[in-house]
Amino acid sequence: QVQVVESGGGLVQVGGSLRLSCTVSGSRFGDYSMGWIRQSTTKEREGVSCLRWNGINTYYRDSVKGRFTISRASAKNTLYLQMTNLKPEDTATYFCVIAKRLHSACVGEFRPEDYDSWGQGTQVTVSS
Asked: How far apart are CA 100 and CA 17, in angstroms?
């Protein structure tokens, strides 16, 4: 079974930075698109960013472009989300997700329904 564990969240002030990590086991890491989805009590679930299975192409939600960077370290099956210049609207629980099917998803868009294998999430709180 695929195991996904997120970490790196915390409480920061506006303008601060955090680096989220997602470690994956039991999966063909390099064959699947991966991404970050966030949920909050004030906003609907939304895809934040995804990295295509080829490990090259990326997609970012408009509201985080220029502030967030998605990357991976394939040798240790870890996905990252570097977040800078954080804003209160970034407050949410962030989940690492893996595409349901091989060589699919994250092609010009990020559709949450294309993913599963969510972890427990990591909380990001940005205070104003």
From this structure: 30
Cα–Cα distance list, 56 to 13, 33, 61, 74, 107 (Å) = 31, 10, 17, 12, 11
What is the per-residue DSSP string for 53-74?
Answer: TTSS-EEE-GGGTTTEEEEEEG
Tell me the C-alpha to C-alpha distance, in Å, between residue 86 and each of 19, 44, 65.
11, 19, 12
Q: What is the pLDDT of residues 98-120, one digit of tens each?
A: 999 999 999 999 999 999 978 89
Task: Write the CB contacts of 4 (distance below 8 Å, at least 6 apart in sequence).
Answer: 22, 23, 24, 96, 97, 98, 117, 118, 119
CA atoms within 13 A of residue 100's CA, in its CB half-sphere? 7
Tell me the per-residue pLDDT of 48-99, one tens digit each, with 9 for 90 and over.
999 999 999 999 999 999 999 999 998 888 999 999 999 999 999 999 999 9
Beta carbons within 8 Å of 24's beta carbon, 6+ residues apart: 2, 3, 4, 34, 77, 78, 79, 96, 98
